[in-house]
Amino acid sequence: MSEKGTVFVALFSGINVGGNRIVKMAELRAFFEELGFSGVATYVQSGNAVFRAKKGDAASLTKQLEAGFEKKWGFYSRIMVRDLGWFERLVKGNPYPQVAGDLTKLHAYVLEREPTAEEIARLADKCTGPESFEIKGDVLYLHAPDGLGKSVFAGLIPRVLKVPGTARNWRSVLALLELAGGAGSTG
């Protein structure tokens, strides 16, 4: 860890969806700064934050952020915290490079843990449409050629896999990697 700290990305679940559980990004940035983090930047309204932490790992930061968030906003949001190296591996590990340019048809689900072989098999049994998926560690890559909104399979993933997670389209993944790569350089 450098003197400036380690760069992390926090992905929030269930905020600013359908006009519910509204959290303004300026308030979210201030929340991170109040907790002592630096280089804070947010991306789109769905709850994505890049920040630097001088101490702590992804697991301890997740607990700290979830507890502080619930106290401040009065509701729970599952938060997935990952470091810059993890995000770099996510992008390099994309099993669908042929569709990476179609930013809204490729998605990455950041999972709380690596699914078991049984959980993956159960999900594979439900993948009967045009979609395809691959799981690498704690990431589920989904290619939804008709888009996520029209994908019946995408709606089944949380219920069938039963591993908590949060999804981002490839545009968001790349934007977050770019933000994380430059975190702290502007203060």
TrEMBL record:
Pfam families per UniProt: DUF1697 (PF08002)
Organism per entry: Mesorhizobium amorphae CCNWGS0123
Q: Which SUPFAM superfamilies does the record associate with it?
A: SP0830-like (SSF160379)
Q: What is this protein called?
A: DUF1697 domain-containing protein
